[in-house]
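Example record used in the benchmark description.
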Amino acid sequence: MAVMMQAFYWDAPVKEDKRGEWWDTIREKVPQLAASGFNSLWLPPISKAADPNSNGYDPYDYFDLGDIDQKGSMKTLYGNRAELENLIRTMREHNMGAIADMVINHNSGADEEETNPLNGQKMWTKFRPKSGKFPRDWNCFHPSRYERTMIEGENFAGFPHLCHRNPLVYTAMFEYARLLIEELDFEGLRFDFVKGYGAWMIGLLSKYQYQKKDGREFAPFVVGEYWSGPDDIGDWLDKVHAVTDQQVAAFDFPLRYKLKDMCDTPSYDLRKLTDEGSVSAARPFNAVTFVDNHDMQNNEIVNDKMLAYSFILTGDGYPCVFWWDYFNNELARPNTPNGIDALVSAHHKHAGGESSILHADPDLYVMQRAGTESQTGLVYVLNNLGNQWSGRAVKTKWPNKKFKPVAWDGYQAPQPEERTTDGEGSAEFPAPPRGYCVYAPVD
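Model output (structure tokens):
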């Protein structure tokens, strides 16, 4: 499985004094990120938004990528089309894929207020984008003649809510997706606020027969942001899969909140990590796991965040690392065994095959990955005790096998010793206080 990075955080260009320069800022980091083992970068929304300082989640002109003087600026907060293309070209040269942020539920920044004749209400729904593409009025939003009552979805923040059953809207969203995949060479689509519209729309955009510039037919990776509990996310995945034969994933919000509790709640019971109350536990091939993201700025994990990263980078799912943590919080820790880089390496080399929980009690969690033809497998130990090393003798699948520690961190984190299993595959595997250790079998 690959590793993704969310290559931005909320107001990143503003906070780092890089307004209009973020595409170039990311591009400068591409060689480092590729060398560290990242396979894809999730980029922020690329289109012109309602305000020059907008993070892009209030789209105005989908087809202005920073080259038209409107809404108070020429560039978007992140840059222009040429800089974006240069970024993606550099990523492709380093065998990395770009994932686009699709905001297709709501719009903002309308040029004129108008009365919707279906409900008599005035709304800002008259859009005259200077790209000349996708001009729209009240009939492109709910309520519309194409859907007077919104059957599926929720409104977001009071923004006008697009009606995808209008052929004009439907067609524009396909043109936008084709721009991303066929012209700009994105390889994946991250759909924002998928509660806001029918799962059928994502299914159709996912299974469209895209064609790359070299003539190859292409099916994008697709992940949805359904911010809810495991049952709601599971129901949404079922609806999407009913209208597409592709593997569509969802962000694992339930696991993320478990990880926050583990890191920030004293005496957290590690057995709570063992139930099926997460996407990765119930549907490991449909889960994108993460520790924090741009929406968690007021609810971020505060303590011992490496515990959470150790969990997602050794366990099931497609892990996503947050730019803020990697760079700003300095958790990459390159050339050491104690940071994200070491865990990304362990993920690629060892974290394959079936996951099995070998032991779990309130303070100790031990998990095994069985391995594949290309990955050795591993034993992962998580210790919740803050004042002592802790381990437990467990029975692995490997008899008479030596294990070496490949990644670890904790309150006291000298290098753990190698372990060797007995003839039945058993050995004790310890981890540092309030820490973790990843052991890999060696020949």
